[in-house]
Amino acid sequence: MVKRGASNLDKMIPKLSRAPIEAPWIVFRDSDNRCPVELKKELIGSDRGNGFELRLACSMTEAWILADANGFAKFFRVSRKKLPAAPDDLQHAKNELLRLCQHSRSTTIQKEMVRADGSTGPLYVNRVINFCRGHWDVARACERSPSLARAVARLTTMRAKLVSTPSAS
Q1: Can you tell me whether residue 56 is helix, strand or coil?
Q2: What's the 3-state SS for 89-147?
């Protein structure tokens, strides 16, 4: 489910957070430069089901996208050398992603990803989804993004719980 903005998603989190393991929910959200621990407490509170997982990207989920530097450089036709070494540390990963795409060797990427004023282009979401579904390498990205590595580890644990939980028939 894509909610197009944290404020829309945040309204749903308290209800989703009570999900049982038999009907799990996993929510990915940007931390928007806030402390992830404090933000998580604020959004979930103490009433949490064991079928809910909220994963907060350090800064923005775009940091996780940039973390697969080889895949990103190839797909978006940018120099690998220009990608940040520590994407989790970026203040605004989305702006960095847009800046990189502005300098793509592909004019199509430039036009689709970034408007003249520097904001997201008309096919930004489609291109990012296409990259993530078919070209993004999560294992490679985990090597450069500690927050993504933690998220993957937590989801692996959650998956093990799901597999071992008898279905409620």
Answers
A1: strand
A2: HCCCHHHHHHHHHHCCCCHHHHHHHECCCCCECCCHHHHHHHHHHHCCCHHHHHHHCHH
| CA of residue 108 relative to chain centroid, distance | 24
Beta strands in 21-99 (DSSP E): 25-30, 52-57
d(CA 131, CA 95): 17
Poorest-pLDDT segment among 73-87, 107-121, 124-138, 150-164? 150-164
Q: Which amino acid is at 22?
A: E
Torsion sign over Cα 88, 91, 97, 101: negative
- pTM, two decimals, is 0.77
Percent of all residues in the chain with a pLDDT value above 70, rounded to a whole number: 92
Helix 124-134 to helix 69-76 angle (10° resolution) is 130
What are φ and ψ of residue 49, in 5° steps?
A: -80, 165
